[in-house]
C-alpha cells in the first residue's frame, strides 16, 4: 500500500482536478473495480467506477497531486490477474458541488456499449486465502466446495455475456444469502464484487451418485468418492470446465481398465497430486517447474519420471515423462484431504483425465453426463457431481519447461484452461483490420476470433475426425461469437480434405474466405505471439503433415518471410520421399523407414528392424507401391523422418497416438547425450534441400557394426540441428531473425540444439511461449494472415 499524507482540511477549487479514464485489457473478472475503489478511497478522491462491454470506465476528482498519484497506482498496482492494454485520460471541468460535500467514490451499474467487448478472463486456480478458509473450522466457508473470491475461481467457463456481472454468468441461478450480499457490497472485503461468490447456505451443491444410489451433503459425497476410489472404482468428477475420470495411480488393473473404457491406446494419462512435495515423489521437479505447477493457471506439467515412482505402468506406458498437476478447484483440495470423522484411505495422487472416449470432446453438461458417464456404455462407476452449470467446456492445459544454460522457459503443448481465451495483441499488423474467424487445423484444433487489434484463441477442441467433435467446435464458435461478435471474414487451412475448411466454406456465405498454407500459418503464429508481424524472418516449420502449395505433403519447411508477412517463399525443405499408403504410413513408422531405405538404395535385409516388423505380405505391398508410385504421395515431412529413424533404431514401429515414435526417440537420445556417438551427415544441397540418404546409409552401417541405438538417436538429433543451422545460413540473405515452429519442436532436445547452434552463428531465435508450436497454435497465424490480406485489399477504405 502506498502511504499518502492526511487530507487537508479544506481544498480550494484551484487545487482540484477532475478526470475521466477508460481502461482496456483484461480488466473484468479480476477484481479491477474493487481495486480502483480501494485506491480512490485511500487517496480521498470522489468519483465512480464501472464496467461496460469493452472496458472499465471511471471518474476521479480531488487534489491534483492525489489524482496524479491515483493514475500512477492504477498502472503500477493493478490486481495480479489484470492485464492493462491502454489507459486513456480526459480532463473534465471540476464539479464544484463535489468539493462542498466531499462526495464518496462509488461502483456504478454496468453499461452496454455497442460494437466493443472486453477481453474475457480465464479460469484461475483457487487462491491460498480461499484454501486457508476451506480448511479453517472457524470459517463459515469451512469445507465449502465452491469457495472463491475476487482473486480466483471460474471465469471463462461460467460467463454467458459481458459485462462480467453475476446475471451474465451461470451463477445467476444462485441468489446470494444476506451474509454473502454484505461481503459482496463491502469495499473492504476480499469478495467485493466477486461474481461467483457463494457459501454453503446459498451456493451450488455437491453429491455422489452410483448404482447404489445418491449421497447428498458435501462431506458425505466426498467420503463416498474416496471409498469408491480406494475400492478400485473409476469416478467421474465434475470440475471447472468439464468432467474428469479419476482412479488410483498405483493399481495396474484399475488404470488399465480406465484405459480400455476410454479406448485410449498408450497415450499417457495426467495425474493430480496434492502438492509439490507429493509431485517430487513421482517426478524430478526443479524450482522453475514447481513455480509453473503452482501458478494461477495450474497446467499439467510434463516432468521427468523419477526412477521407481509408485505409479502403474499403464499411467504412461513407455514414457519417461509424467504429466502432473496440482489441485486448482476446492473440490480437488477436499478430495485429497481427510473427511472429518470418515476414516478410510485418503489419496494423495489420482489419475485425472478428461471424461470422454478418445477423439471425442470432453463431457460437460448434465445431459451429456447422463448419456456418456453412467449410460449404457458407462465410462465410469460413479460420479461426484454438482449443480453449477458449465457454459463453456475447457480442457486442462499442458506445458513443458525448456532449460537452456541458466535460462528456463515454458513451452505450451496445449493452451486451454488457465490461459484461454486471454487475447494476443495483433496490433503489430499496423492497423486495425476486420473481425476474422480462423478455424484452425484438423488435429489439436483451436479456433481464433479477432476484434481488429486482438486475437482470441479458443480452448482446446480436439481432433476433428468425429461428428461429436465437429459439433463441439460449432458450439464453441457460437459461444465465443456471442461475446466477441460475429466475424466479417473467415480463414481456413489450404487442405481440401480438412473438416474445418469444409465447415468454413459452408458458413462463409458472401464473406471472404482466406485459404492459408499450413506452415505459413505456423510461422506467422510465432511472429504474432511475439508481436513482430512485419519483420523479415526465416521460419523453420517442422511437423508431421501439412498440405503444400504443390498439392504434396509438406512438413520439413524453411520459409522466408519479408515485411509483408502474409506472403512467403519456400526457401528450403526436406527432400520429399514417398508416403506409402498415406495415413497408414503415419500410423506405421515401419512404412516410413522402408520408404527412407528405398530412397537411400539400401536393401531390405531381415536384420533391419523395420523389415522384421512387417509381414511378408506387407513387405510385398510396400515394395509394389514404391516401385509403381501407386498410393505414394511425395512427403517432405520432418516428423515422418523422425518416425522412420525411430523404426530403424527399433524404438517404435506402430503408434497408438500422434507423435509417439518421436517422443520415444527423443527419450532414447536423452540417455546418451553425454557419450560420443558416430557423426551422421545430413546433407544440405546447394538448392536448400535437406537430403537424408547419406545419413541413413551411415546409420545402417553403424547398426551393422553394433553401435548402440541410443548413441545413434542422439547423433540423429545433432545431425538435424546441424542441418537446420546450415540451411538457414544458406538461405538467410541478410535476415537475422529465425523462428522454430511446428509440432516437431515440441521435442525439447531438438529445440535446444537448434536454438544454441543458430544463436552461436549470430541469429536471433524465436520459439513459442504463448501458443503451442503444434496445430493448437495454427489458427492464430491464419487469423493474422487474413487480417493482413484484408488490409492490403483496402478493407479500411471499403469501410469508410
Give a short summary of the structure.
The protein has 800 residues and is α/β, with parallel strands linked by helices. It contains 25 helices and 32 strands.
Essential attributes:
twelve-stranded mixed beta sheet, 800 residues, 32 strands, disordered N terminus, seven-stranded mixed beta sheet
Q: How does this structure look, described?
A:
The structure is a single chain. With 800 residues, the chain is α/β, with parallel strands linked by helices. The protein is built from 25 helices and 32 strands. Strands 6, 7, 8, 9, 10, 11, 12, 13, 14, 15, 16 and 17 form a twelve-stranded mixed sheet that branches. A seven-stranded mixed sheet has the order 29-30-26-25-24-31-32, sandwiched between helices. Helix 23 (748-760) links the parallel strand 31 (737-741) and strand 32 (764-766). Helix 16 (589-599) crosses helix 19 (638-648), helix 20 (660-670) crosses helix 22 (709-731) and helix 21 runs antiparallel to helix 22 (709-731). The radius of gyration is 28 Å and the shape is globular. It starts with 15 loop residues before the first strand and ends with a helix. Residues 1-12 have low confidence and may be disordered.
Amino acid at each position: 500500500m502506498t502511504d499518502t499524507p492526511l487530507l487537508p482540511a479544506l481544498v480550494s477549487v484551484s487545487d482540484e482536478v477532475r478526470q475521466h479514464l477508460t481502461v482496456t485489457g483484461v480488466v473484468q473478472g479480476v477484481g479491477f473495480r474493487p481495486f480502483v475503489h480501494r485506491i480512490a478511497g485511500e487517496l480521498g478522491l470522489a468519483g465512480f467506477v464501472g464496467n461496460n462491454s469493452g472496458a472499465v470506465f471511471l471518474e476521479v476528482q480531488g487534489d491534483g497531486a492525489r489524482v496524479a498519484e491515483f493514475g500512477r497506482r492504477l498502472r503500477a498496482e493493478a490486481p495480479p490477474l489484470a492485464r492493462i492494454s491502454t489507459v486513456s485520460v480526459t480532463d473534465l471541468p471540476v464539479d464544484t458541488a463535489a468539493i462542498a460535500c466531499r462526495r464518496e467514490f462509488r461502483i456504478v451499474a454496468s453499461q452496454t456499449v455497442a460494437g466493443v467487448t472486453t477481453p474475457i478472463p480465464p479460469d484461475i486456480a483457487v487462491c491460498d486465502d480461499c484454501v486457508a478458509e476451506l480448511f479453517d473450522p472457524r470459517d463459515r466457508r469451512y469445507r465449502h466446495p465452491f469457495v472463491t473470491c475476487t482473486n480466483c475461481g471460474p471465469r471463462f467457463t461460467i460467463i454467458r455475456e459481458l459485462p462480467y456481472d453475476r446475471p451474465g454468468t451461470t451463477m445467476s441461478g444462485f441468489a446470494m444469502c444476506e451474509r454473502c450480499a454484505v461481503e459482496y457490497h463491502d469495499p473492504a472485503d476480499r469478495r467485493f464484487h466477486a461474481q461467483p461468490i457463494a457459501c454453503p447456505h446459498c451456493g451450488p451443491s455437491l453429491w455422489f451418485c452410483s448404482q447404489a444410489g445418491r449421497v447428498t451433503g458435501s462431506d458425505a459425497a466426498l467420503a463416498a468418492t474416496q471409498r469408491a476410489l480406494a475400492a478400485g472404482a473409476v469416478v467421474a468428477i465434475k470440475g471447472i470446465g468439464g468432467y474428469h475420470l479419476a482412479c488410483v495411480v498405483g493399481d495396474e488393473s484399475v488404470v488399465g481398465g480406465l484405459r480400455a473404457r476410454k479406448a485410449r491406446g498408450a497415450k499417457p494419462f495426467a495425474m493430480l497430486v496434492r502438492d509439490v512435495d507429493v509431485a517430487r515423489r513421482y517426478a524430478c521437479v526443479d524450482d522453475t517447474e514447481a513455480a509453473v505447477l503452482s501458478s494461477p493457471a495450474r497446467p499439467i506439467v510434463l516432468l521427468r519420471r523419477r526412477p521407481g515412482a509408485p505409479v502403474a505402468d499403464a499411467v504412461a506406458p513407455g514414457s519417461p515423462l509424467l504429466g502432473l498437476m496440482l489441485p486448482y478447484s476446492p473440490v480437488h483440495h477436499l478430495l485429497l484431504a481427510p473427511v472429518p470423522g470418515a476414516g478410510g484411505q485418503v489419496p494423495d495422487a489420482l489419475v485425472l483425465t478428461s471424461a470422454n472416449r478418445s477423439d471425442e470432446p470432453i463431457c460437460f453438461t448434465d445431459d451429456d453426463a447422463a448419456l456418456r458417464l453412467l449410460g449404457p456404455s458407462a465410462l465410469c462407476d460413479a460420479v461426484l457431481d454438482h449443480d453449477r452449470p458449465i457454459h463453456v467446456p475447457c480442457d486442462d492445459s499442458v506445458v513443458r519447461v525448456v532449460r537452456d544454460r541458466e535460462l528456463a522457459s515454458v513451452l505450451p503443448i496445449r493452451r486451454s484452461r488457465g490461459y484461454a481465451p486471454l487475447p494476443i495483441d495483433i496490433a503489430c499488423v499496423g492497423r486495425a483490420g476486420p473481425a476474422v474467424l480462423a478455424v484452425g487445423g484438423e488435429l489439436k484444433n483451436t479456433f481464433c476470433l479477432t476484434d481488429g487489434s486482438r486475437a482470441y484463441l479458443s480452448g482446446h477442441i480436439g481432433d476433428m475426425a468425429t461428428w461429436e467433435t465437429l459439433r463441439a467446435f460449432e458450439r464453441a464458435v457460437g459461444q465465443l461469437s456471442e461475446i466477441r461478435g460475429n466475424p466479417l471474414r473467415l480463414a481456413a487451412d489450404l487442405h481440401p480434405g480438412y473438416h474445418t475448411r469444409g465447415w468454413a466454406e459452408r458458413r462463409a456465405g458472401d464473406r471472404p474466405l482466406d485459404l492459408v498454407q499450413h506452415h505459413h500459418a505456423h510461422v506467422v503464429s510465432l511472429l504474432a505471439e511475439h508481436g513482430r508481424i512485419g519483420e523479415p524472418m526465416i521460419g523453420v516449420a517442422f511437423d508431421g503433415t501439412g498440405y503444400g502449395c504443390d498439392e504434396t505433403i509438406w512438413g520439413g519447411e524453411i520459409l522466408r518471410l519479408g515485411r509483408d508477412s502474409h506472403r512467403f517463399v519456400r526457401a528450403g525443405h526436406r527432400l520429399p520421399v514417398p508416403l506409402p499408403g498415406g495415413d497408414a504410413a503415419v500410423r506405421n513408422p515401419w512404412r516410413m523407414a522402408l520408404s527412407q531405405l528405398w530412397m537411400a538404395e539400401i536393401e531390405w535385409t531381415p536384420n533391419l528392424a523395420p523389415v522384421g516388423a512387417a509381414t511378408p505380405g506387407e513387405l510385398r505391398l510396400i515394395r509394389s507401391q514404391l516401385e509403381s508410385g501407386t498410393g505414394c504421395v511425395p512427403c517432405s515431412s520432418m516428423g515422418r523422418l523422425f518416425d522412420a529413424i525411430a523404426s530403424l533404431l527399433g524404438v517404435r514401429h506402430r503408434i497408438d497416438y500422434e507423435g509417439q515414435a518421436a517422443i520415444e526417440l527423443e527419450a532414447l537420445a536423452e540417455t546418451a547425450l553425454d557419450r560420443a556417438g558416430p557423426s551422421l551427415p545430413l546433407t544440405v544441397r546447394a538448392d536448400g534441400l535437406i537430403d537424408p540418404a547419406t545419413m541413413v546409409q551411415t546409420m545402417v552401417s553403424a547398426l551393422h557394426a553394433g553401435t548402440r541405438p541410443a548413441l545413434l538417436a542422439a547423433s540423429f538429433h545433432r545431425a538435424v540441428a546441424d542441418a537446420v543451422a546450415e540451411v538457414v545460413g544458406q538461405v538467410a540473405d541478410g535476415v537475422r531473425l529465425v523462428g522454430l515452429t511446428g509440432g516437431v519442436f515440441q521435442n525439447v532436445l531438438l529445440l535446444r540444439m537448434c536454438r544454441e547452434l543458430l544463436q552461436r552463428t549470430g541469429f536471433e531465435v524465436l520459439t513459442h511461449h504463448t501458443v503451442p508450436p503444434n496445430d493448437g497454435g495454427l489458427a492464430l497465424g491464419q487469423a493474422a494472415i487474413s487480417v493482413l490480406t484484408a488490409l492490403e485489399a483496402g478493407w479500411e477504405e471499403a469501410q469508410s
